[in-house]
Structures are given as C-alpha cells and as structure tokens.
Specification:
The chain is of the alpha+beta class. Helix content is 20%, strand content 25%. The chain has one domain: Jelly Rolls (Sandwich), CATH 2.60.120.620. The termini are far apart.
Amino acid sequence: MNHLESELLESELVSEVRTKGFAGPFPACTPEEMQEIRAEIERDVLDTPSKIYGFPIGRDRHLDCPVIWELFKRPSIASKLTEILGPDLLIWRSGFFYKPPGAPETAWHKAAVFTDFTDHPILEPPDPKGLYCLTVWMAIDEATLENGCVQLIPGTQNIKMKTSQQEVSKQSKEDDREFGSKKEGFFGYKFNYDLTEEHMRTVVSMECKSGEFFIFDQRTVHGSPPNNSSKRRLGINFRVITPNVKAYGHFLPEGKIEHYGNVYDLTKWGCLQYSGEDRYGMNKIVSPPKA
C-alpha cells in the first residue's frame, strides 16, 4: 500500500465505499436549484441531437451541454470523488436514466471493466481488483421506492458470482434515447446472479430528493424496481476514472463501438479532465463544452 492509499483509507467515506460498495445520498444542490437546472435540461438537452453522436441520445451529454458539465463539477460532488480516488480524475461516460410511469424493473446487474455486450473490455485498469472507477448517480426528479429508485446490495462488489446472460428483447436506438426505460431486464437482457436470501435481506433502496446524489462502485450489484407511480423518475449519472485507466483503448483505432445493439461513432468522443491533471497520457482528452 502506498502513502496515498494509506491516507485515503483513513477516511470514513473511503471505508464505506470499499466495504459497502456505495455511499450517500448527499446534497449537490437544493430542490429549488434543481428545478431551474431541470428546466434548462428539458429545454436544451432532452430530445436534442448530440454533437458527439449525431442523433438525439442521453449518452455523454456532458461533452456538448454546458449545463450538464457544470452540474457534474459542483464542489460537493468533486470533493467526495477526490477524497475517494485521489486528486486526478477523468470523466469518461455519462447518461440519463429515464423511468416513466409504468416502466418495468431494471434487473440486477454489475460491471467491472464493462465487457457486457462487447468483445473487449471498455476499461483497462492497471489493477482490476483495485478501486479505479466510480459512478455518481444524481436525482433530477425525486427518486422514491414507488417510482423506481436505484437499489444496491452491500458488499457484492467484492464477490465473484456465476452469471448467465439471456436476451429478452433487442435494444433499439429509440430505446437507447430513453435509456432502456421500455425494456425488460437490463437493456433487453436478463442476468441470472447467484444471489442468496441473505443478499436480498440487505438490499438498500437509495431514495433521493431532487438534487441529491450517491456514489457507488459499478461492481456493486444494483438495479431498480418498476415505476408504480404516476410520476416519471429522471436521473443522470457520470463515471470517473483515474488517469492510469485506459478507456475505449481497443475501440478508438476503429473510431466506433457497438454497444447495447447500436454503433457509436467515437471520433468526437473523449475524456474530460474532471480534476487535477493527467500524468499518464493514456487517454484521448477533449475540451469541455463552452457556455
């Protein structure tokens, strides 16, 4: 263990993420502030073509929408991420999570280096067993158990589980635009995890007020129940990595990736420097969007 890891492990927050696999919720902004941000997102982001991918999509809008980039940079979020992973961080991915009334459950799932639906790892960390990627999930609308808040199973990021993958229905570009909200399972797939009764007894329902967020290790098993309310549940997430983790390394030479049944042009994609500096030069870095 190096000096930096020793310092980080002294933090209660780091210990919580390492043992449980998640922490939160925490306030990023007040519901009143989020109301204004939500209006801007609905006006300028949702249903608008991405400058990165060329069609309306909720994927990676931090790359072309200043309101999203500024939301992600809020000090209350950045301070916790750097406390856990260190001062140098890159954003490599973001996405909206839309769950309208009547939307089905999102099946239990997890990811290590994001090899689901791809032939090669999307992330290449120097130590796959270490902590190298964190996801921030933020509630744009209030997220409750009734309208399908995210649920997580503590400690499951540290265990290996036998899984099988069963296709339920194919993903379409329209579904990706709404982030699989109309698909059963997870993007039309169902994963069969070897979960015990003890696992199910420890499930945590991460209810969040509008403007709150939580942080989790993507390797933690998570999902969400159906939206049984009359209100939508809109959230957004983003994922940070340390600069010694290579993103899309296998796919960038071809300039595209096939993911969730669609092909995405990566020629305009890149990581954004979220905090600190890039001391490795392993990743494609692009400039943040300008207001």
